[in-house]
């Protein structure tokens, strides 16, 4: 639901900004003309639209892909702080230490007792595409390494049933050698579609040594928004399955943002009044 709401609001903002010639404020060397019909449709424009540009200068390269600032193509980041990780055992005789080890005080996590696993929940929007998990760790232990795992824990949508735990990503080892500050990434190919209805997601760190020689500094998830998959049947007779905007209209209908202009009709070619826009935004935000 959040993904659909954000898509609609972003699309409204994109149309408004484009109408006021926002691209005129971007230099020619920072923008590229979009002519591919498929790309134009994915951006919400007719396949034969003209004068559609994408700002390419604002993006930066990360993990071999562009992180653009344009709506619908940009990456989002969710960080897990070390203090969100909880050891499976945490007794007075074997506590977990938030001293930072040898790389700072009171923020990073190191292991002091016999239990070598610590877990943290990963909370991402439903329907989002999980693309990467990156870690920051400090390891000065010449013999032992650290490891990182990502689990998807699922139950039936309704009613009782067994728990299913799937390892969807891992780095074992995640650190190598006693080189100090280290970082590495788990790449999800294909990307993982977050299913909050049936599943929860857990990030686990394994410490193979005790004391300040191994510390967790941060874990970060990189994800992108997705439009809901198109259904097999059309909600509106005037936006059939083959319509260029079928998937987008169906996403708005499924979220309750639009109810159409009449029974079984969406009126895709009619202009939107300010009153109708108010109804769309109010429904999207639940006002």
The helix/strand class is alpha+beta
Mean pLDDT: 79
Poorly predicted runs of 5 or more residues: 1-8, 11-30, 56-71
Q: What percentage of residues falls in helices of 4 or more residues?
A: 10-25%
Count of separate DSSP helical elements: 4
Characteristic terms for this protein:
2 domains, 4 helices, alpha+beta, six-stranded antiparallel sheet, Jelly Rolls, 287 residues, disordered N terminus, five-stranded antiparallel sheet
What features would you describe in this structure?
By secondary structure, the chain is α+β, with helices and mostly antiparallel strands. The chain has two domains: about 1-70 and about 225-285, no CATH class; about 75-225, Jelly Rolls (Sandwich), CATH 2.60.120.200. The chain contains four helices and 15 strands. It has helices at about 1-20, 35-40, 245-255, 275-285; strands at about 30-35, 55, 60, 65, 75-80, 85, 95, 110, 115-120, 130-140, 145-155, 165-170, 180-195, 200-205, 215-225. The strands form four sheets. Strands 5, 7, 8, 10, 13 and 15 form a six-stranded antiparallel beta sheet that branches. The protein has a five-stranded antiparallel beta sheet with strand order 6-9-14-11-12, with no helix packed on it. It is elongated and about 70 Å long.
């Amino acid at each position: 639901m959040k993904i659909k709401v954000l898509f609609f609001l972003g699309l409204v903002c994109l149309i408004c900004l484009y109408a006021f010639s926002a691209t005129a404020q971007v230099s020619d060397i920072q923008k590229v003309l979009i002519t591919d019909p498929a790309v134009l449709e994915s951006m919400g424009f007719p396949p034969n639209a003209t004068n559609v540009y994408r700002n390419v200068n604002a993006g930066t390269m990360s993990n071999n892909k562009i992180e653009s600032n344009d709506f619908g193509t940009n990456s989002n980041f969710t960080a897990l702080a070390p203090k969100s990780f909880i050891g499976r055992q945490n007794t007075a005789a074997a506590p977990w230490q938030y001293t930072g080890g040898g790389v700072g005080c009171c923020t990073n996590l190191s292991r002091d007792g016999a239990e070598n696993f610590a877990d943290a929940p990963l909370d991402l929007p439903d329907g989002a595409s999980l693309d990467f998990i990156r870690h920051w760790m400090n390891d000065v232990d010449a013999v032992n390494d650290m490891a990182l795992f990502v689990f998807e824990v699922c139950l039936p949508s309704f009613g009782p049933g067994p728990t299913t735990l799937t390892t969807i990503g891992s780095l074992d080892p995640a650190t190598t050698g006693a080189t100090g500050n280290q970082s590495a990434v788990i790449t999800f190919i294909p990307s993982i579609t977050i299913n909050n209805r049936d599943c929860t997601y857990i990030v686990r760190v394994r410490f193979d040594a005790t004391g300040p020689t191994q510390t967790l500094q941060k874990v970060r998830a990189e994800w992108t928004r997705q439009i809901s998959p198109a259904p097999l049947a059309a909600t509106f007779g005037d936006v059939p399955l083959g319509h260029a905007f079928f998937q987008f209209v169906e996403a708005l209908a499924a979220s309750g943002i639009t109810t159409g202009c009449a029974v079984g009709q969406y009126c895709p070619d009619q202009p939107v009044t300010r009153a109708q826009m108010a109804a769309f935004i109010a429904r999207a935000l639940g006002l």
